[in-house]
Description:
This protein has 3 helices and 6 strands, in the order H-E-E-E-H-E-H-E-E.
Amino acid sequence: MEQAREAVRERLADFRSRVVLVPLEEQDGLWTAEFGGLDWICAFSDEEALARFAAARGEEGREWSYRRVVGARLLDEVVPVLDFPCGVALNAAGPDGAVFPPVRGIVPDAAALDGEAA
């Protein structure tokens, strides 16, 4: 069990230090998707991961505008200012995907569903 926890901590630390690509919607806001009753900011480690996601959606020909953002900024600054609960999904539609839900230990307690936001 401790090995699993350590692997999760390492994955989170890697994401927090990584620059990711976040697609933009038409109004230049960060693109989100709803899954499991929660909104998720979609982030990708590189253009190839974003292309896999586009292909899975049948949108290979679409031009995807994106912003480069450090993972920690998404979790610590962006998620807390949203007026709805939101997590971050990394590399959706890929073999190395991960989700970072809005819970204590991942986002600030004020934005966590199991923290002050509850």
